[in-house]
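DNA-3-methyladenine glycosylase I: structure, please.
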Amino acid sequence: MNAMKSEENITRCPWCLSFEKYVRYHDEEWGVPVYDDRVHFEFLVLESAQAGLSWATILKKREGYRKAFADFAYQIVADFPESYVQELLQEPGIIRNALKIRAAINNAKRFMEVQEEFGSFSNYIWSFVGGKPIQNQIQSMKEAPATSTESDRLAKDLKKRGFKFLGSTTIYAHMQATGLVNDHLVGCHRYEAVKKLGESKKD
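Here you go.
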């Protein structure tokens, strides 16, 4: 589908039009370059939880995840004990999947190892796109990729480092969400704004 006009007569990517929180996410966050490690960790937790589900489902549970996962403070998540895992398995505000919950705890530990090696997780992940966002020019949803050469490389490296539930498709979604790639449709009102943010990235 091509970019579609919403009720406010603003043209948006069509995937976000099903409910208001999705529209706000599209307009305010999706594709904006992220350099904050806590935000990167938040999206890694949410995207690893998404496996087999829709992003809309995860977005609706985002506040539940924020509360259950200590506002995505990876230092705290890394030390979650097994007793808390059992509590989380009873928490309706998140996806109650033991493998995904344990993966988030494991990934918090691996995340800090990457920080120690590269100074920040942001430094590490941006190195896979040469430090600047990839500016795609997608005309319709039919052209939207699910993976890329960069996401393949990044997912392979993360797996080697011991991260879990972060395959190439999941990592490509992370790259889209955190602005390593601009996949707004060219006709979307956010395309040029996000492109300018990437061009004026911090030094």
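Notes: The two ends are 36 Å apart (CA to CA).
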